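tool=predict chain=A
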Amino acid sequence: MSSALRRMTNYLGLTEDDGSQTPAIDRPAVKVAKPSTPSTPRLSVAQSALPQPQGSMDRIVTITPRFYSEARAIGEYYREGNPVIMNLSDMEESERKRLIDFASGLVFGHAGTIERVTSKVFLLTPPNVTVSGEEKSAAAQASLFNQS
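tool=predict ok
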């Protein structure tokens, strides 16, 4: 049984064939690459994954989507560091919930905030933007929005 195991490991290239046994099958030569130890780590972490403040904010983007497929535009404006007002009054209830889930994940991933302005209007603010106004409750300051 050990000879069968030795032949299998030789065939897979895991061990060197000592030449004492003739292989039962004719096989191509296989080279196994030995793992190298790099002097620098393979993964490098960026200094800051969050967008850096670019001085002054030049605009607030207002979007009134009708379909969930328009979520990409919201994400692109938000990633550029612009506050986004989402008016979801023209959407169906099921797509509205999906878009709120998308926006919640977007602001959570970028350490921003999402706030309800009215029942169907939401404000997405990047981390470098603060919104002043009435005193907010602890639930309204959370990064994720509870839809229930």
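The chain has two domains: 1-33, 61-141. Helices lie at 2-12, 71-79, 93-109, 138-141.
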